[in-house]
Design a protein that fits this description.
Layout: E1 2-3, E2 44-45, H1 48-62, E3 69-72, H2 76-85, E4 90-93, H3 95-100, H4 102-105, H5 108-124, H6 128-141, H7 148-155, H8 162-165, H9 177-187, H10 196-223, H11 233-241, H12 244-256, E5 260-267, E6 271-278, E7 287-292, E8 298-300, H13 304-308, H14 313-321
The structure holds zinc ion.
Zinc ion (ZN) binds near residues 287, 302, 312 and 315.
Length: about 325
């Protein structure tokens, strides 16, 4: 029989790690669920599988759906626990963390000669095909194709290379400081020694804290109105839809569109394809904006909208060109 030893799900004591991340005077979010659904202290179960089903039922009713994605720096404990217990959560590795290891792993000379290309390849490839081809070309010409560490990183490329992970909406948590903060945040709650119960309950505490922070941000979003910088109706509408943080990013994209020009690359019965590039930048590779004629669906090769939920400057430049100044 399995027993729940640690069931203080949402009311951690002052000595528990949750308290380290916030103001002790703040109130935690407490789910409203029936008592029989809540796991009890010393409750016994037939099997671990049944425990997990019980927890999932509780989590579902309490409003804690598993996250679509978690970003870590290849932490082995996190990898094992999330892969096993959160099978529908995409476990992504921090690209910045991996790229930062190149200097110690591939040798000083190879680093000096090939680092910039490798970094550009992992960050800027727009498609898996482009990444695979560019990576193979770089490691081939630099005699690094048999390098053990590079090979091991290539084997897990689907977890960290942007061309493979960009399609998952992640509010721009890629590799940046926010990802590291997120990882550090969850690490406060998790360790390799956690039992499944501890993992689940600690993870839930982490989510409760995030939920609380989210409510705090919502309060600011409702009470603080951003300053509009253009006469676009779209900007006004987005200021009502986005959070303050997202709206500032959207404004930055709008600000940039004046520097971009569009030229038609290809057109057939099904779609029209535009190249969007910076006017003053010689050799700018630009981005490709594709318009589906039957649905009017517009997409950009940078995939910022899919990844970040914010239309990129390339899409906005296109919309500006065709004078759609309302909300897309
Ligand atoms: Zn774009």
């Amino acid at each position: 029989m399995q027993s729940v030893d640690d069931i203080q799900l949402l009311s951690p004591s002052p000595s528990q790690p949750c308290e380290e991340s916030g103001n002790s005077s703040e109130e935690l979010y407490t789910p409203k669920v029936k008592n029989e659904v809540i796991p009890k202290m010393s409750q016994e179960f037939k099997s671990l599988e049944y425990v997990f089903m019980y927890y999932n039922n509780y989590a579902f009713k309490a409003g804690f759906t598993p996250p679509k994605m978690i970003i870590t720096d290849q932490d082995p404990a996190m990898t094992r626990k999330t892969d096993k217990h959160l099978p529908n959560t995409f476990h992504k590795y921090c690209i910045r963390h991996i790229v930062s290891k190149f200097s110690e792993k591939i040798g000083a000379l190879a680093y000096k000669e090939h680092y910039e290309q490798l970094k550009k390849c992992t960050w800027n490839s727009e498609s898996p095909k482009e990444f695979d081809a560019t990576w193979a070309y770089i490691v081939g010409k630099s005699n690094l194709s048999t390098h053990q560490w590079l090979q091991s990183m290539y084997e897990i490329h689907a977890r960290w290379v942007l061309a493979y992970t960009r399609h998952i909406f992640s509010v721009h948590m890629t590799s940046s400081q926010r990802a590291e903060i997120s990882h550090a945040f969850f690490k406060m709650y998790l360790s390799d020694n956690n039992s499944m119960y501890e993992f689940v309950t600690r993870f839930e505490r982490a989510l409760a804290r995030l939920r609380h922070n989210e409510l705090d941000s919502n309060h600011k979003d409702i009470n603080e109105k951003p300053v509009l910088k253009t006469s676009w109706l779209m900007e006004k509408k987005m200021s009502e839809l986005y959070t303050l943080h997202s709206f500032k990013k959207f404004q930055e994209e709008i600000f940039q569109i004046g520097g971009y020009v569009l030229t038609i690359l290809h057109e057939d019965e099904r779609r029209r394809v535009w190249k969007v590039h910076r006017e003053e930048m010689e050799g700018s590779r630009g981005r490709v904006v594709s318009v589906d004629k039957s649905s009017n669906r517009v997409s950009c090769s940078c995939q910022m909208f899919e990844f970040d939920g914010i239309p990129c400057r390339h899409l906005l430049a296109y919309l500006s060109l065709i004078q759609i100044k309302g909300t897309p």
